[in-house]
């Protein structure tokens, strides 16, 4: 039995029941692929259902505001995905429908090689190999390939190999099978080699190189940043600021940072504010943030830059916040200060 046949037979007994596999609707499939980038299925499924319910068609999503989409996305992180999702939906509407080939699908905002192949395969039955992290791992181990998967040459090598192994029939089901195989059977750590249908032909298993493959050459350099935020409560309102382009959390809302304040305001809060928490560590892909939070309830409304707004405390739930803000507000709610953060 060849590689593809073995995987398809394994898949018959091990397929994960996923709602977006029950449809050929390109919108539902595309939505799942975007949500599941850097997100576990267990977490992403609830978001998929939420988006489908709130915006049943790509036309509904295109007509939504960016703020609405960011709010619905809150908690998933990597918010550029949500902004790209919105722009791509508008592109689809302008085109009067989804492109039907992987080549054309890559013209949509935020749609790369993998996502384009997935939509083309699962929605339109294009015979194109879908290569995600699971597929890289399965192929690297099965063939014993030590070419780094994060290099241009490595990506090309694995894409060509994956395409050569793609069966001419049931190609979409095969793509789903090899991804599930990597997620369930050939896992990153502690793969189930003893009961693997491919172990007799697996080079990495034979040469005891399972834990060495696949190979990556690049390491992400993370820089550290220190941030100081203030929860400024005046009467029943707090101050918020919407982040602009060119940094993390574009379009999301945050509390004022100390660097936003005038020298006079800085003197006032340093004299009267209460420390809530210090050096809260929050890890992003390229940055590690160490954050302080202070609670300040001034007697008079302080002067803030023009792009700040004052929001009733109970309305904060209507604003899309980065995960770090949720963490800080949770710590504030659990403190002895106990203002009603309404989170």
- Mean pLDDT, to the nearest integer, reads 94
- Rough outline: elongated
Number of helices: 14
What is the share of helical residues? 40-55%
Order of helices and strands: HHHHHHHHHHHHEEEHEEEH
pLDDT < 50 stretches: none
Write out the CATH superfamily name of the largest domain. Hypothetical protein, domain 2
**What oligomeric state best describes the polypeptide chains here?**
single chain
Distance between the termini: 55 Å
CATH fold-level topology of the largest domain: Endonuclease III, domain 1
Cα radius of gyration in angstroms: 24 Å
Biggest sheet, in brief? Answer: 6 strands, mixed
As a percent range, the share of strand residues is 5-15%
Helix and strand composition category = alpha+beta
Describe the structure.
With 343 residues, this protein is an alpha+beta fold. It has two domains: 3-207, Endonuclease III, domain 1 (Orthogonal Bundle), CATH 1.10.340; 223-334, Nucleoside Triphosphate Pyrophosphohydrolase (Alpha-Beta Complex), CATH 3.90.79. Helices cover 43% and strands 13% of the residues. The chain has helices at residues 3-14, 26-35, 41-54, 58-63, 66-73, 80-94, 102-105, 113-124, 133-143, 152-165, 171-185, 203-206, 263-272, 323-333, and strands spanning 223-234, 237-242, 253-254, 274-283, 287-296, 308-312. Strands 1, 2, 3, 4, 5 and 6 form a six-stranded mixed β-sheet that branches. A hairpin with a 2-residue loop joins β1 (223-234) and β2 (237-242). The radius of gyration is 24 Å and the shape is elongated.
């Amino acid at each position: 039995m060849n590689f593809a046949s073995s995987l398809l037979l394994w898949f018959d007994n091990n397929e994960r029941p996923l709602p977006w596999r029950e449809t050929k609707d390109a919108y539902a499939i595309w939505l799942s692929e975007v949500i599941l980038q850097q997100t576990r299925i267990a977490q992403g499924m609830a978001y998929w259902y939420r988006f489908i319910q709130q915006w049943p068609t790509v036309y509904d999503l295109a007509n939504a505001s960016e703020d609405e989409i960011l709010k619905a996305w809150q908690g998933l992180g990597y918010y550029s995905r949500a902004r790209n999702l919105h722009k791509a939906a508008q592109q689809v509407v302008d085109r009067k429908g989804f492109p039907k080939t992987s080549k054309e699908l890559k013209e949509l905002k935020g749609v790369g090689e993998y996502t384009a192949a997935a939509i083309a395969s699962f929605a339109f039955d294009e015979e194109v190999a879908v290569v995600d992290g699971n597929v890289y791992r399965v192929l690297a181990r099965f063939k014993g390939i030590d070419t780094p998967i994060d290099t241009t040459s490595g990506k090309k090598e694995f894409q060509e190999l994956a395409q050569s192994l793609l069966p001419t029939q049931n190609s979409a089901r095969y793509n789903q099978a090899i991804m599930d195989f990597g997620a369930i059977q050939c896992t990153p750590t502690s793969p189930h080699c003893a009961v693997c249908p491919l172990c007799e032909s697996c080079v990495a298993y034979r040469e005891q190189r399972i834990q060495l493959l696949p190979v990556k050459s690049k390491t992400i350099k993370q820089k550290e940043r220190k941030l100081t935020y203030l929860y400024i409560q005046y009467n029943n309102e707090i101050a918020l600021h919407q982040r602009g382009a060119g940094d993390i959390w574009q379009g999301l809302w945050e509390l004022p940072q100390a660097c936003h304040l005038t020298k006079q305001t800085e003197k006032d809060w340093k004299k009267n504010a209460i420390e809530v928490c210090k050096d809260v560590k929050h890890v992003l892909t390229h940055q590690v943030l160490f954050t302080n939070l202070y609670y300040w309830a001034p007697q008079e409304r302080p002067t803030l830059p023009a792009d700040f707004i004052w929001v009733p405390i109970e309305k904060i739930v209507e604003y899309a916040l980065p995960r770090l803000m949720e963490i800080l507000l949770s710590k504030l709610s659990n403190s002895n200060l106990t203002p009603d953060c309404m989170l």
